[in-house]
Amino acid sequence: MDDLYRENILDHYRHPRNYGEIEQATIVQHEHNPLCGDQLSIYLLVENERIVDVKFKGKGCAISQASASMLSEELAGKSVDEAKAFDKQTILDLLGIPIGPVRLKCALLSLKTLKAGLYGVNLVDDDEDSL
Amino acid sequence: MSVQTTLDIQAIREQFPLLDQSINGHRLAYLDSTATAQKPLAVLDAMDRYYRTINANVHRGVYQISEAATEAYEGTRRTIGRFIGAKSTKEIIFTRNATEAINLVAQSWGRANLQAGDRILLTVSEHHSNLVPWQLLAAQTGVELDFIELDDQGRLDLSHLDQLLTERTKLVAMTHMSNVLGTINPVERVIAAAKQVGALVLLDGAQSVPHIPVNVQALGCDFLAFSGHKMCGPTGIGVLWARRELLEAMPPFMGGGDMIKRVGLRESSWNDLPWKFEAGTPAIAEAIGLGAAIDFLNELGMQAIHERERQLTHYAWDKLSAIDGLTIFGPPAAERGGLLSFTLAGVHAHDVAAILDTQGIAVRAGHHCTHPLHDIFGVPATVRASFYLYTLEEEIDRLAEALVLARDTFQL
Ligand SMILES: Cc1ncc(COP(=O)(O)O)c(C=O)c1O
Q1: Which of A51, A52, A118 is nearest to A84 (CA)?
Q2: Is the CB–ligand 1 distance for residue B38 below 6 Å?
């Protein structure tokens, strides 16, 4: 109970940071997680290879939405290259809770959306397929 | 409910070793039998005994244990046939599950009998397994799909049935009991109307056969598909029942050993029913396990099981509908089998299920393989609690308490 739904997760879910849209966004990316129907849109305003503004909108479970909210805080002010270097561990560290294989898709939806936006293709493997 | 069940639930629970464990410090409350049921000792023992004493391939060996294995495997066909009111063991085809049974009908009967412009009538509440096989067939043959919709209470809306059933309708394929709404559908009415236009009827019995008495003669359907694992049997075994004349006329579904009579290099002839549809070494232990599961259910009585689930459903309906922010989907308890799907305002279904899990309560969260139905509800996911012969009122009490906990944790 206390593990998965720590107060900071619930806080980000109830009061998502950077929620909304950017009208002049340089990058807009929508993704969804068919497993639980989570939806996410990320808006980035990039100037001189730096992310000067981030917003997101979405619907879904607490893990997916808290993950997006936390990621948005982390992204603000980062260079595009720094953002490209974000990986699965970045997200797990931000969430700070143990995530089982089933909820991993929820947790990584934000990263998947970000990477798809930055690279134009889906690069995030959210299945536990390592041998 | 004042009526007491005739079943001794505590004694039944002792037959299910898996139920006796704790999860996250709580006694496991398994409320996901609609997805798959737990297995009684009788089933575990029957399969164990098979592997320990008579494991051999069937229909081949002339030695003793192969004959014993064949007898046990074929004996299950009789058990199943009697259980659903079939006329002969030739009408009982073993498949992997309900899904494979439906695909068999689509690919064998469908491709041989349907052509572009023919129509198949489905309902919008079908499990993907009774929808996608028909979409595949439609793409292959040009057959068109029509759908019975729902009324505002989540019942099938049969008021347009006469328009939906046309001269070109060749098949009605529908679920006998919904795995999301719990509705026990008035299939008799649909079957009678289908007969008027000469359409055949396939019933998806994945949820009905495990939970209510089902007799194919009384129903008058033409095909019935179900899965062993939802009725206390093992995974990997399912059944297609069909009228013998239909099966006789249908071409094989898969080719290989066991389904042939004579094989030449360019041509072969097919085995008799039911083996014509069973290519390759079958799931022998699983069939034997399913036979044991049916014996187990028969001993308790399907009517008694159904009444017990009805009692649990009324109990759960009262408990859950008293929770603020909780919405139950589908018709009133009296028209249902033992399951309730619902949402809790402000809390995503997966979060609800995760919080219930912390309390040792296992429920399903998601779309339950019914995307179109969830689109109609306008929700991405629901939580589903389902009951079976081993469910206790006390587990439903714990469910209700944990739902209040979930709501309060997320208090927005
Ligand atoms: C109504 C219904 N039909 C079909 C199926 C498919 O069963 P299986 O996956 O065992 O083939 C299910 C199982 O969830 C079901 O509930």
Answers
A1: A118
A2: no
